[in-house]
Write a structure and sequence with these properties.
Layout lengths: L6 H13 L4 H8 L11 H7 L2 H6 L14 E5 L1 E2 L7 E2 L1 H13 L2 E3 L2 H6 L9 E9 L18 H11 L8 E4 L11 H10 L3 E4 L12 H19 L8 E3 L13 H4 E4 L2 E4 L2 E3 L22 E2 L10 H10 L13 E5 L13 E5 L3
Parallel strand pairs: 1-5, 1-12, 2-3, 4-5, 5-6, 6-7, 8-11, 13-14
Antiparallel strand pairs: 9-10
Helix pairs in contact: 1-2, 5-7
Length: 359
C-alpha cells in the first residue's frame, strides 16, 4: 500500500526530529546534516518512527480535517468524439480532471479506499476513478507503439505528468475475452496498468445481469474472469479482487449475494474486497460502521441523463456543504474527525482517532 505525505508534513517531521530533543542521538545527527548534500528522508520510514502523538501534532486543524465525510467513486465507460450518456469526449474528460484538481480532489486506489489506507494530502479529498468494460477507447496502442493520447490511459498519463500531485490511480473493470479490444496486446496492456500503479477489476466473463442468475452462474461469471485476467497479467503478487456489477444488478435472492464476495469455480477461489454498484450517491467513509464493501455506490461521471445526481451535481453539493466532504489529515495511521462526527465511526487495523472541536 502506498503512503503519501505532503512535502509540508515531511519537513515538519524533520524539524521536530532536529529540534525537539526527544532522542538525543537522532537530534544531533539531524542538526548536523547538510541539506545540500543529503537525500530527503523516506516518508514511510518517517511515519514508522514517529509516535502517534507527534503525528497528531503535525495535523493542521485549521484545514478542518473530517475523515468521517463522504467519498465520490466516479464511474466512467467510454472516451469518444461525440458526447453521450456513456461517452465522455477527451476535452470533457480532461475538464473533469481539471475541475477535480482545482476543487481539491485527489485520486486514490479503490483498494486504499476500502481498506482505509488513506494518506491524501492534508486538506484535500480522496476520490476513486473507475472505468467499466475495458473498451479500446480506454487504452489504445497506435501503429508506432505509442499510446493513443486521447484514450483514457493517454489522457490520465498526460494529466499526471502535468500535475504530479494528482496521483495516477484508476481501476479498469474488464469483461470478455479481449481486454481493451486490441488483438495480441491484452497482456501488455494489463501489465502496463498494474506496473504504473493503476488497477484491474472484474466485470464478469460475459457482462450478464446477475439479478436472476443461479449460484453456479454467479460463481462461473466471477471466478472464470478472475482466473482469466490473472493468467493474462502473469503476476503471482497481484489479485483481481474487485468487482463491478454488470448493469449494477444484484441477485434478487439475498442468499446468493454472498457469492459476489467469495466463491470458487473450476478450482479457482475468488475473494473480492469491493463490489461496485451503479449508484447515485457518494460512498461513506471506510471508517463509518455503515460502510459496506460489498455494496459501494458510484456516481456517473457525465453531464447527460444524470437526474441531478451526477459528478458536477455532487461537486456543487460539497462546495455548499463542506462538512459532508471527506477531508484528509494526510496521515494514514490517524483518523481525524470533529468531535460531533464520532457517532458511527470505528477504527481499522488499530488506527488511532484524533478528535477536535472546529474553530
Amino acid at each position: 500500500m502506498k503512503k503519501v505525505f505532503s512535502i509540508a508534513v515531511i519537513f515538519m517531521f524533520i524539524f521536530l526530529f532536529a529540534g525537539c530533543g526527544s532522542t538525543a542521538g537522532s537530534s544531533e545527527k539531524e542538526a548536523g546534516a547538510s541539506p545540500a548534500t543529503e537525500q530527503p528522508p523516506d516518508p514511510s520510514a518517517i511515519s514508522d518512527s514517529i509516535s502517534p502523538e507527534d503525528l497528531k501534532a503535525s495535523i493542521n486543524l485549521d484545514m478542518k480535517p473530517n475523515e468521517a465525510g463522504k467519498v465520490m467513486v466516479l464511474m466512467y465507460h467510454n472516451i469518444g468524439n461525440e458526447e453521450s450518456e456513456w461517452v465522455r469526449t477527451p476535452s470533457n474528460f480532461t475538464n473533469d480532471l481539471n475541475t477535480l484538481y482545482t476543487k481539491g480532489y485527489r485520486p486514490i486506489s479503490l483498494t486504499d479506499y476500502v481498506t482505509g489506507n488513506i494518506s491524501t494530502e492534508q486538506g484535500l479529498t480522496p476520490i476513486v476513478l473507475t472505468f467499466d468494460d475495458g473498451n479500446l477507447n480506454n487504452f489504445k496502442y497506435l501503429e508506432d507503439g505509442s499510446i493513443d493520447s486521447v484514450s483514457a490511459i493517454g489522457l490520465l498519463l498526460d494529466f499526471h505528468q502535468k500535475h504530479p500531485d494528482f496521483p495516477l490511480e484508476a481501476t479498469f473493470f474488464i469483461d470478455g475475452d479481449m481486454p481493451f479490444k486490441q488483438s495480441g496486446l491484452a497482456s501488455q496492456k494489463l501489465r502496463f496498468i498494474v506496473d504504473h500503479g493503476m488497477d484491474i477489476g472484474n466485470h464478469t466473463r460475459d457482462h450478464v445481469s446477475l439479478k436472476t442468475a443461479s449460484s453456479d452462474t454467479i460463481r462461473e461469471q466471477i471466478g472464470s474472469q478472475a482466473q482469466f485476467l490473472k493468467i493474462l497479467l502473469g503476476r503471482d503478487d497481484y489479485d483481481v479482487n474487485t468487482l463491478a456489477l454488470p448493469y449494477g444488478e444484484r441477485p434478487s435472492d439475498p442468499s446468493l449475494a454472498a457469492y459476489l464476495i467469495s466463491g470458487s469455480h473450476a478450482g479457482t477461489v475468488y475473494n473480492n474486497i469491493a463490489v461496485m454498484n451503479v449508484g447515485w450517491n457518494p460512498g461513506r467513509s471506510p471508517y463509518d460502521t455503515r460502510f459496506d464493501h460489498s455494496s459501494i455506490p458510484r456516481i456517473r461521471a457525465s453531464e447527460m441523463k444524470v437526474d441531478n445526481v451526477g459528478l458536477y451535481d455532487y461537486i456543487d453539493y460539497f462546495d455548499k456543504n463542506p462538512d459532508q466532504r471527506f477531508i484528509s489529515d494526510g496521515i494514514s495511521q490517524i483518523i481525524t474527525v470533529p468531535e460531533e462526527n464520532m457517532e458511527w465511526l470505528s477504527s481499522i487495523d488499530g488506527k488511532e482517532f484524533y478528535t477536535y472541536r472546529p474553530r
